[in-house]
Amino acid sequence: MVDTIVNTSDAHHRPMGLAEGPEGSLYISDSREGKIWRVMFKGNKGNFGKGQLALIEERKLLPHLRTPDEILDNLEEDNLVGGKVYNRYCATCHQRNGKGDENRFPPLVGSDWVGGDKGRLIDVVLNGLQGKIEVSGIAYNNLMPAFQYLDDKQVAVILTYIRQNFGNEVDEVSEAEVRVRRQLP
Q1: Which residues contact 59 (CB under 8 A, 6 or more apart)?
Q2: pLDDT band at 79 (very low <50, low <70, confident <90, very high)
Q3: High-pLDDT (> 90) share of the chain, %
Q4: How many Å apart are CA 48 and CA 53, to the nearest integer?
Q5: Residue 100 CB: number of other CB atoms within 10 A?
Q6: Cα–Cα distance, 129 to 34 (Å, whole number)
Q7: DSSP string of 120-182?
Q8: Which of 134, 158, 132 has its CA nearest to residue 143?
Q9: pLDDT band for position 1 (cuts 50, 70, 90)
Q10: How would you class 93 by CB atoms within 10 Å of its CB: exposed for 0-12, middle for 13-18, buried for 19 or more?
Q11: Contact criterion met (CB below 8 Å) for 124 and 113
């Protein structure tokens, strides 16, 4: 049985990009190992039907393929609203532990971007960030998308969560502060 990977930084591979080849193969790039995986169907597409779908459903019941147990696998490490919203929108890049991926996405742990000026941090979430930045002495040059579609409360709980977790111990971000920054030109 394979252990459930809760934090993506624990994974041995990191599939990042998908592309379909002209012959119908699926290509998956692995940013951790620097490989490209090719997935292709080798059967007869004309003979694929209900019998083959039944075999796929049967295979899903094999003991090493399982649905994670919500309690035993502890998929939700906390019940905080901010933690859940963070895990939904931010953990893919910055990881559940806030340490980033040591390559393209900076850590939130002990970052002056997190613990410093709240206005700048709010602006980064609302407007995104592009270009070279330095976090904890390491240069990063990637694109962070804008999250303008999140409402003021969601932005406030995410930022409060990261400002009060991952070794950060600074004050919260309020909905009013987000609302003010959102209205700036």
Answers
A1: 65
A2: very low
A3: 41
A4: 8
A5: 21
A6: 25
A7: HHHHHHHH-EEEEEEETTEEEEEEE---TTS-HHHHHHHHHHHHTSTT-------HHHHHHHH
A8: 132
A9: very low
A10: middle
A11: yes
Q: What is the pTM of this model?
A: 0.59
Classify residue 122 as left (phi > 0), alpha (psi -120 to 50) or beta: alpha
Length of the chain: 185
Other Cβ atoms closer than 10 A to 126: 18
Provide the pLDDT confidence category of residue 103 given band limits of 50, 70 and 90. confident
- CB contact at 8 A, 1 and 63: yes
Reduced to 3 states, what is the DSSP secondary structure of residue 84?
A: helix
For residue 118, give the DSSP letter.
H
pLDDT digits (tens, 9 = 90+) for 125-177: 999 999 899 888 889 988 899 999 999 999 999 999 999 999 899 999 999 99
Helix, strand, or coil here: 41?
coil
> Which domains can be identified in the chain, with CATH numbers?
1-75 (no CATH), 81-183 (1.10.760.10)
pLDDT (average), residues 98-103: 85
Q: What does the alpha-carbon distance between residue 183 and residue 92 come to, in Å, rounded to a whole number?
A: 28
